[in-house]
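Field reference: sequence -> structure
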Amino acid sequence: MFAEAGAALAQAAAAGSCIAGPIDQVALATALMGQVPGSPLVDLLEGLCPSDVHDAVLIEAIAAWERVTSLAAARQGEMIAELARRRDAQRLGEFVGDEVASVLVMTRSVAEAKVSLGTSLAAWPAVNEALASGVIDHRKATALVDGVGHLDDDAAAAVLDAVLPVAPGLTVPALKARLRKVELTVNPAAVAQRRARDAADRNVRVSPAPGVMAWLTAYLPAKDAMTITAIDAIAASADPADPRCGGAARGRPDRPLHRHPRQRHRPHHRTTRHSGTGSRDSGSGRRDSEGRRGLEDRARASTAPAGDRRRDHVAGVG
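Structure field:
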């Protein structure tokens, strides 16, 4: 069927048109389904008229073009890996990303990601072969090589051998989860190692957003990041008539909730006193206890139904 479609393509090209009605649409879709990426497939896809073919052909053509892009990513990676090998021999390896960024007119960080993928694919031929054959796309290939990049060769090979066969049927998030799960069976000490590695990578970034806004992104241990719930509880206790959502209340620079203390104490600070302290410290402890109770009440109110929160607010005003 693929040869028949190719012959029809040649005739259509000679006539200055593209493949349409004379081809068995169902058979063409079936032929596209199993065709590996390469020049014959590209030629056939270039000859298809999207407005003239059956829905089944459109769907298989979409998948076929995806396989072609996977082949292109694999071949590009091979070229990048060879360039990196030559530059390393010349002690110029650190500039490969700049060269790629220059020729592709992209940022250095994006170019470095391409260099990383290309060199990693050279180290793991099985992943490169799966990418070149269109079995996986470049995002899955990146997830695979990045997911084993911190392991020694034997452990990485064991993880890839277990995960690569099922990678085509998984989404990228599911693939990453499978990698982590298999890693635990291959390397039981991986949990502690990953915890230390991830903690070392913690950071806070500010990224520009459209207009006059910006994104503040924090990569933190989960137990530390959960402290934001204290701010959420305060924001949720705002006046029900306030048109702003809780997120907008948190993001007000003129009234940052995490800066203004309640009852002269900050909700995330804890005051303790020793047994020998006097009455002043006792008073401070009472105020701190009252502040914590107030925060707990607001947190409970934030989880109550909307009607209950409104009644609580009215009762408090009265």
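Note: The first strand starts at residue 203 and ends at 208.
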